[in-house]
Amino acid sequence: MAISAKDVMELRKQTDCGMMECKKALTEADGNFEKAIEILRERGLATAAKKASRTAAEGMVYADYCPKCKVGVVIEVNAETDFVAKNDKFVAFVKEATQVIMKQNPADVEALMACKTENGETVDEALKNLILVIKENIKVRRFVRYEGVCSAYVHGGGTHGILVNFETTNGIEAKDEFVTYGKDIAMQVAAANPGYVDEASVPAEVVAKEKEIMLAQMAGDPKTANKPEAVKQKMIEGKIKKFFKENCLVDQEFVKDGDLTVAQYTAKVAKDLGGDIKIVKFTRFQKGEGLEKRADDFAAEVASMVK
């Protein structure tokens, strides 16, 4: 199967591996990206793939929470240039769309476009009017809406938006200390980028695939290749524990106090406030993740390497 320069460029973006390694992996995988990433990981050339780690579009991410109605929203709206994120009309549109989502609970972006704003026009009409003013292509890309106790956090003026959903008892969510705690957890999600809330929320197939990759890495390492199977399995157990600690929010070291895990910090705050706190779920949006900017010079560089 012929591997295009564009495919090699995309795999390099997803893994940060060298171009020739990416071409070899894609060739071996018959062009299958997921398989190619797995091959690179097995060879120790790529870490656990963060395929959307490179920001590739402009605009902004925004998050907000209404304590009175107990609804939180995180939204991403994309544009062509970074100047748009600083435009007052653009920011006002993003915030208005957020309020519409909070109040009307549309099922998806298409449904959101049909919702009415406070001045009677649809969100779609408001967007088209904004495009006429700003003269850039603007799109509402995605949003998540949670009901219940939440914490919303916007980082970097709209580069990241975090929404965390909690379960609480005894009304402790109304206390200032809980608000501070909620922001801490949202900032933890922004900084440490966990993939899951806890070990129980990690799908079994994800754990199985991690073990498979770890075994392949051991097989390719002269230091571990000939070790007894029982020893390898013991090593795998340790590696999986490390995987959970790095990828599960409650198991991570708390960024503001490395002596505590997030779970320990949560238990401490709950005890101090006289109630219970459970982190239920979270969403972390990074502006432009998974989208692609024009990179003509880089594409030419890759093309020259793979011809």
UniProtKB/TrEMBL annotation:
Region (Involved in Mg(2+) ion dislocation from EF-Tu): 81-84
Subcellular location: Cytoplasm
InterPro entries with a match to the protein in the record: EF-Ts_dimer_sf (IPR036402), Transl_elong_EFTs/EF1B (IPR001816), Transl_elong_EFTs/EF1B_dimer (IPR014039), Transl_elong_Ts_CS (IPR018101), UBA-like_sf (IPR009060)
Keyword set, alphabetical order: Cytoplasm, Elongation factor, Protein biosynthesis
GO cellular component: cytoplasm
Residues in Translation elongation factor EFTs/EF1B dimerisation domain copies: 72-289
Any one Pfam family match given in the protein's UniProt record, by short name: EF_TS
Coiled-coil positions: none
UniProt superkingdom: Bacteria
Main location (coarse class): cytoplasm
Single Gene Ontology MF annotation: translation elongation factor activity
Role noted for this protein: Associates with the EF-Tu.GDP complex and induces the exchange of GDP to GTP. It remains bound to the aminoacyl-tRNA.EF-Tu.GTP complex up to the GTP hydrolysis stage on the ribosome.
Family per record: Belongs to the EF-Ts family.
Record-given protein name: Elongation factor Ts
Organism field: Faecalibacterium langellae
